[in-house]
């Protein structure tokens, strides 16, 4: 029995320690690099799921699926720190930024001296997720990327970011969550270029892991998954990320020219579907159960029951809970051997419209980067804007190009979109996600048609 590399999804640190001890050393292979905790709570209609994300500094756990508010230099656009608490909490605790926003201005050294982004902005309760790409200002420029690093078009011009540069930024800014460096390509590149993009992304993931521990970067590393519009490449990249020591997955390469119709297959290729069986072992000393990964296979071994590795080949086995002397095990028939571990959060970038978000939720995505929603001011809205100002007043502000208009609209839109995510979570919990999605898409189609008629 090979006693190596167990990047297994055990939830109990207790059993983890015992296991490591029993296997003789190697206890540090699954060192927790972060205080992030994530657990899946409910499933609905296949892969749509709700979960709970907990981060050390955040006062309350955050339910997923959830939205990361996009920011410029750590603050949501048009919303000043004093207005931030007017957004619904805890939903609005998640903020996303690109380290490239800081190219102009403060150096990484200065930010490091201040103690990171939370310290610098005084937002100690908020959760920062660092992703280099941002949908408006920092776009990947695949023609200029090379084997040394990824290129981005930024307000400061074109920048080539090497893994070492990137890890300097992460180590100084200290985000709670960060995605590894990725070579993102648009949908129309050649299959050769797409393959190169996966090779580089995997190589950079290894470099980010190594540099991250060398620089004591901290934070939860989300392994980048790319692969453009090619299902096999998507799978390959997901498998590579799944066997590495990451806390979650960042799924990139979307919103770059692929069609909405081909997206579900691409998302599902990454979040492979599972057939789930739960097995309860009674009167089993969990100390005698081993779950580990050897030669690319998930293996389960229980001394007392004499269930050995061969019986469980090609299955993903997860310890669900341990109560007294009982062990609950989940066995999943996986389409591929190295599928993404269920108990790690998945963050996707580039799905912006509500319909696209629903595609992601249906494929089992937990976190989304900011979205564009042109929903008009609605009736009965309880946001700060609608409670305090009339539509006419906001229209007036827009007409005279007053910046307050943007602030008020931003508050309303954010409120509205966080509410959308809340409805998604409720639908999943009640087991009616598919129906919710159908109704929503139909309703929006009618709404858009009505707007088009009026225009
Ligand atoms: Zn409102």
Automatic annotation (TrEMBL):
tRNA processing in keyword set: yes
Localization, UniProt: Cytoplasm
Gene Ontology biological process: tRNA modification
Obligatory cofactor(s): Zn(2+)
Cofactor binding comment, as recorded: Binds 1 zinc ion per subunit.
Family as reported in the entry's similarity comment: Belongs to the queuine tRNA-ribosyltransferase family. QTRT2 subfamily.
Protein name: Queuine tRNA-ribosyltransferase accessory subunit 2
Origin species: Turnera subulata
